[in-house]
Amino acid sequence: MKQRTPVSDIMTKNIIALTRSDNLERAEMLFNRHKIKHMPVVSGESIIGMLSYTDLMRISFAETKEESNRSVDSVVYNLFTIEQVMIKDVFTITSETTIKEAAQILADREFHALPVVDDGTLVGIVTTTDLLYYFIKQF
């Protein structure tokens, strides 16, 4: 296993992101459509927050996908904005951060995703799933 491999080798570069003007229904649709659990919230190319699927489920009364629950989710989602639900104090890494360092940060801080930012621009995201696939390839 290479000791100094940068996260740029494994990070997701095609970022699915939200803006502060998006609503929580759109967030849920993107989470489900792209089968992801974390989304950066951006203003232009800069990250201003992170939203996780878990954050979204915490404010929802119904965690099922049944059609009858859609109206309940819609009502709840309309009570909050992206900005009210997102994590604002986002811990980021650079594309040159090593995979080992990223794994250590995720483990120590109990995060599941790290936005990758170079010179103030969001360039990727590294998740625990990305790390698992990387480690699997090593064997």
TrEMBL record:
Presence of the UniProt keyword NAD in the record: no
SUPFAM superfamilies the record matches: CBS-domain pair (SSF54631)
Domain of life per record: Bacteria
GTP-binding listed as a keyword: no
Keywords assigned: CBS domain
Domain CBS: 11-66, 86-139
Name of the protein this chain belongs to: CBS domain-containing protein
InterPro entries, A to Z: CBS_dom, CBS_dom_sf, Diverse_CBS-Domain
